[in-house]
Sequence to fold (516 residues):
Amino acid sequence: MSEMYPKRGAQDPALLDLDELDRYERAHIPPGPPPKQDPRLRVLNFDEVFLGYDQEQAIVEAARCIHCPSPEPCILGCPLHNDIPTAMLLIEQKRFVEAANVFRATSNMPEVCGRICPQESLCEGSCTVAGYDRAVNIGKLEAYCTDWQRQHAGFPNYHIARSTGRRVAIVGSGPAGMSVAEELMRDGHEIVVYEEWPKPGGLNVYGIPGFKLFKHIIAEKVAWLERYGVKFICNTRVGKDIALQTLLDEYDAVFLGIGAPIGNKAKLPGENLKGVYQATEFLVRANLPLQDLPVRMRARPEIGKHMAVIGGGDTSMDCVRSSIRLQRQTGMTDGVVTDYYRRTEREMPGREEERMHAKQEGVQFEFLVAPVAFHGDENGHVCELELQRMALGAPDASGRRSPQPVEGSNFRVPADIVVLALGYSPDPTIGDTMPNLEKGWKGLFKVETEFTGATNIPGLYAAGDDVRGADLVVTAIAAARHAARAMDAYLRNLDTPLKRESLPFALEQNAAVPAE
Ligand SMILES: Cc1cc2nc3c(=O)[nH]c(=O)nc-3n(C[C@H](O)[C@H](O)[C@H](O)COP(=O)(O)OP(=O)(O)OC[C@H]3O[C@@H](n4cnc5c(N)ncnc54)[C@H](O)[C@@H]3O)c2cc1C
Ligand code: SF4
Fold:
């Protein structure tokens, strides 16, 4: 087999005798990257770039897992400690629903994580097979089996604990809030989620573009939670429309999952000119159906021939890629989209894959430059961006070499639209209304530890970006799951949180739905 399979080089399970494969042979199965939309076509739509595996490809890719001895590096590398090797084996055996349930046992949003986690620095970054060839494509397989389950069998049916009569208010419906809602609903508590945007979902909906994550996935999850009695109250800003203290008075416990939504300012002349956007406003107006936006935002962002994005993280890549789609969709084939970043490409914090996608789609990059001013025309609209060249100096606290301005190097470039993607900070509104609530760096909520999420106010918990600062979906879910266990113990007056069974769905769900 070891000689035969690589020679045939086929991604065809019919050619593999999976029962016979040893670790060496598995490690030498050629990797099968999932197909993508052609860059020339995908700039004309906001659909997901990855087209996903088909069944045969998924089975062969899963067979590349060599089932490392415990502790498996991929499990250690995953913040949720998903049991990846077991899921890989089940996929290989065409038991897709069971594989999906292995992911669901430790994750509230495996179809999201499978798509947008930076796997190269988490599970796949730890995968032993990467020593031979490309790591097992764990993320795309996670997405494959959980999509398969939703499409063929639906979300798994839960066994819900007997009603406790306790009521919980959750503020924010991002990954953190939704995970706490799901966990505590299963524990038999009554859940009400308050959300400021017109629809639930947090940044998964109001931020991350459709070409990375189909929005219907979140809508399906919300509908499913509603079926189990979770109530979503949207268009409601806690701290303004309803006081946090009112929630604390009316509910038995409250969870804060409000994220870190305030876009950092450039603090430069001309920042308030027309045509200068903050990343989130630009992304939601570019990506979402207008009826899903608040009335004041219901218009597409402006498009220009020269569109500039400032920043080097994932948000900046989302902005350049949305910009080029807007240009191309309106027939502006000679439009230029440029990302300006103050360090070199090597120091860019965002995912390499996203950068590569952006380049394939025609985005230009200018490195070692920082903005110094935005210049406007007679109508008060931005028309030029003034930049200064930078050189790399000594490493800073993050370990990356810090950019130093090069004297006398200023220059101007045309810019009809500028999007600022300079990172995010917490929103102080709620904290300001509750002075006795302890806060930490930049106003992030202070919690006892991330294993409880308990704030200094009894019954008030927090997790996600409002505790960690802007981070990842998977880390928000992980902390939220810990907070949910601690909240359940609080609501039941227990000293130690109850544990979940390891495979909560296996007995109840349609695990027997066969793959063709
Ligand atoms: C453009 C962009 C792209 C990203 N891409 C990725 C990626 O590819 N992969 C990845 O892992 N992570 C990515 N992230 C980060 C990820 O989205 C966040 O880390 C994650 O969503 C944090 O979850 P959360 O639940 O803590 O907060 P959020 O998702 O921010 O959810 C908070 C929710 O609380 C609501 N809210 C806030 N204040 C109030 C209030 N006072 N009253 C009521 N509701 C309120 C907000 O409207 C929001 O819906 C990206 C972030 C951005 C901005
Ligand atoms: S590290 Fe890679 S090869 Fe090892 S068990 Fe995990 S997925 Fe399989």
Q: What stands out?
A: The chain has three domains: 4-152, 167-261+426-491, 263-424. The first strand starts at residue 167 and ends at 171.
